[in-house]
Amino acid sequence: MAKPRSPLRKWLTRRIGYPVEALLVHGVNAVFRALPLDRASALGGWIGRTVGPWLSGTRRARRNLTRAFPEKSKAEIDSILRGMWDNLGRTIAEYPHLEQIGHERVELVGREHVDAMREDGRAGILVSGHLANWEVETVTARICGLELALVYRAPNNPIVGALLMKLRGAASQTQIPKGPDGARILLRHLSKGGHVGMLIDQKMNDGIPIPFFGRDAMTAPAAASLGMKFGLPLCAARTERLEGAHFRVTVLPPEEYPTSGDRNADTRILMERLTRLLEDWIRDKPAQWLWLHRRWPD
To answer: Phi and psi for 272 in degrees, rounded to 5?
Structure first.
């Protein structure tokens, strides 16, 4: 168990560490904003694959990859890692250009499901994972007239968090933080007929264990439980990076809910189905998923 930080260290982090980190993030964002989209994305990719492999998160990503793909060689794992850092660097660099990407760089498959969700007069849920540039599908939905509230984990640094909220404004004007307060906001939003975008591939300590790449991963069941409780359409969506800053967003038809009569069992069945779908997408393009998460218990 990690030792709690001392009061002095907490003070130094808040008063010095966070402002310095925020200054760096704002500076990098300003550079990417000043560049044309393609040059910004290419520069971000170069920085990612050059610097990323030297960062501490690479160790966790490598461990996750070798456990998920025991059949792959070290060279194959190294290639996926470089691709992951390239994709992450591009994603960060593309934040100031999200609106342009949504208007000019997205091939949308399954638009009829987006249109139906927008026009059916009910609330709805769109689920996905940290694939390619995961912000693109929300921007795309908005351009199609479907406003999605985003459920997100707030960064530790509140100054950086404020910048991210501003950048995500191209995708959504309603951003809901995880936690008890956020859960109440989410329920109110759905009760008023709103739509929500949720990423289901992060660890949730008080979630439910769902098999993911052969090992149980604690998974938030909120998307399934809310969808079944209120009888809402729930669609899965995939974002793929095609080349550079070009993307394909695929929206699938609404899920059919299990009907065993046991709400807890049905929630698990649906989350297993969605997680298998996500795993299939990751297996198809493993370099486009964020392997840095502490997704499985050690």
So the answer is: -65, -40
Q: What would the 3-class secondary structure string for 194-237 be? A: CEEEEECCCEEEEEEEEEECCEEEEECCHHHHHHHHHCCCEEEE
Beta carbons of 33 and 170 less than 8 angstroms apart = no
Global confidence as pTM:
0.91
| pLDDT per position as a tens digit, 56-106 | 999 999 999 999 999 999 999 999 999 999 999 999 999 999 999 999 999
Domain ranges of the chain: 8-288
Contacts for 99 with CB less than 8 Å, ≥ 6 apart? 139, 170
Cα–Cα distance, 197 to 186 (Å, whole number): 11
The C-alpha atoms of residue 142 and residue 239 are separated, in whole angstroms, by 15
Pure H helices in 35-121:
37-51, 57-68, 74-94, 98-104, 111-119
